[in-house]
Amino acid sequence: MLSLDEAQSQLLALATRLPSQSKPLSACSGHYLAEPVIAKRTQPAADLSAMDGYALSSFTQPGPWRVIGESAAGRPFGNEVGAGEAVRIFTGAHVPAGCDTVLIQEDAIRDGATLKLNGSELLKPAAHIRRAGGDFLEGSTLLDTGIKLTPGAIAVAAMAGYGTLNVGGRPHVSILASGDELRAPGELCDDAHIPSSNTPMLVAMLSGLPCDVTDCGIVEDTMEALETAIQNCMQSDIIVTTGGASVGDHDLVEPVLRKLGAQIDFWKVAIRPGKPLIVGRIGKTIILGLPGNPSSAYVTATLFLLPLVRFLAGCTAPLPKVNNGTLNHAIAAGGKRTELFRALEENGVISIFSRQDSGMLTPLSMANALLINPVDAPARVAGEPAQFLRID
Ligand SMILES: Nc1nc2c(c(=O)[nH]1)N[C@H]1C(S)=C(S)[C@@H](COP(=O)(O)OP(=O)(O)OC[C@H]3O[C@@H](n4cnc5c(N)ncnc54)[C@H](O)[C@@H]3O)O[C@H]1N2
Ligand code: MOO
């Protein structure tokens, strides 16, 4: 059986990033950058005032000065300012030639054209001035290929002179829930049936990523139904099935994939929960057969589906970030599979829920972390280090 690391590497190695596309900045949020952002301009392009007041030369203190004009944002004062002279200035305006400091208006007394200091404290050179290039210089690399475009990253790209950016493509993901016991969420269930909680859970997990998701509904446990349902999704980049991934008589995902001529890249990974994960391909479509147990589906989606979507969409660090924390209580030694315990993390201190049955949803609904118990890890006591993934 593949280890977690091997299985994640194999999955990403068989995927091909989607072609990039140019998008206006207003449509770039959450996408992955497909080219570096290299500043097309220097910011600020000139020395600017950080406050409303008066620009003058610090060498001419303590004044008084004669106010000879005005520099406003977008309307610079075009002339040189001489000894004994000052210019009214506003936040964001060019500091005129001949000036090296800004006297804020609260510290000034203005009488007609005459300006005096309001007090005895002298201004230092460069006070209240934002230096040209203080934020970035033309030609500098501001954002690297593959990063996620946050609002701040989009703003810096705009300031750097970009109106559009090349970003990764949006993978299309189809979700199929397999099982005769399943009903659509909200439908009445007798005691032989359950709501398909996996479908809305997976849609929610994908909602923060640049991808398009289709809920393909519930498929009954027959070879024909599953075959047809999978064939109907072949335009997708990824088909996700949940349920039917194990070895029971009604677990049909693997036999149906074989019947459809799929390449089965791997089946079963040394993780708990989530062992029966199936990864296969038909043409360019990657099929992820997630186990049906809700927590197993959640964990395998976190470890495999979301990284695959991120990778296809152009992310260069698609795997979930592993964080370091400390245990709030003892945990048993690790076994032959990497365990992922639903847990609560507060200020880096992690407590796992006592109920870890992969069929249960209440611990998952309260968890904000998955604690990682590596293969063959020694038993640990409270206060010892532990690694975890954040989940939201
Ligand atoms: N003899 C063995 N039995 C099982 C093994 C094994 O190795 N040998 N593996 C177990 C593990 S681990 C898991 S996980 C499950 C995975 O089973 P399947 O992927 O085949 O899933 P199902 O049997 O269809 O369902 C399991 C469980 O989850 C419920 N379910 C299914 N779909 C949904 C959904 N959309 N929303 C909510 N809940 C769902 C289903 O009703 C079952 O209770 O196999 C073990 N068995
Ligand atoms: O992996 Mo199953 O996912 O252990 O319940």
From TrEMBL:
Biological process terms from the Gene Ontology for this record are:
Mo-molybdopterin cofactor biosynthetic process
Is Metal-binding given among the entry's keywords?
yes
Q: Looking at the record's lineage, which domain of life comes first?
A: Bacteria
What reactions does this protein catalyze? adenylyl-molybdopterin + molybdate = Mo-molybdopterin + AMP + H(+)
Transcription regulation listed as a keyword: no
The record's section on SUPFAM superfamilies has: MoeA C-terminal domain-like, MoeA N-terminal region -like, Molybdenum cofactor biosynthesis proteins
Cellular-component GO terms for this entry: cytosol
Reported cofactor(s): Mg(2+)
Keywords, in A-Z order? Magnesium, Metal-binding, Molybdenum, Molybdenum cofactor biosynthesis, Transferase
A molecular function (GO) held by this record is:
metal ion binding
Q: In which pathway does it act?
A: Cofactor biosynthesis; molybdopterin biosynthesis
PROSITE patterns cross-referenced by the UniProt entry? MOCF_BIOSYNTHESIS_2
What EC number(s) are associated with this protein in UniProt? Answer: 2.10.1.1
**UniProt domain MoaB/Mog: residue ranges:** 174-311
The record's listing under InterPro entries reads:
MoaB/Mog-like_dom_sf, MoaB/Mog_dom, MoCF_biosynth_CS, MoeA-like, MoeA_C_domain_IV, MoeA_C_domain_IV_sf, MoeA_linker/N, MoeA_linker/N_sf
Role according to the record: Catalyzes the insertion of molybdate into adenylated molybdopterin with the concomitant release of AMP.
**What family does this chain come from, according to its entry?**
Belongs to the MoeA family.
Q: What is this protein called?
A: Molybdopterin molybdenumtransferase
Give the species: Sphingorhabdus lacus
What is the taxonomic lineage of the source species? Bacteria, Pseudomonadati, Pseudomonadota, Alphaproteobacteria, Sphingomonadales
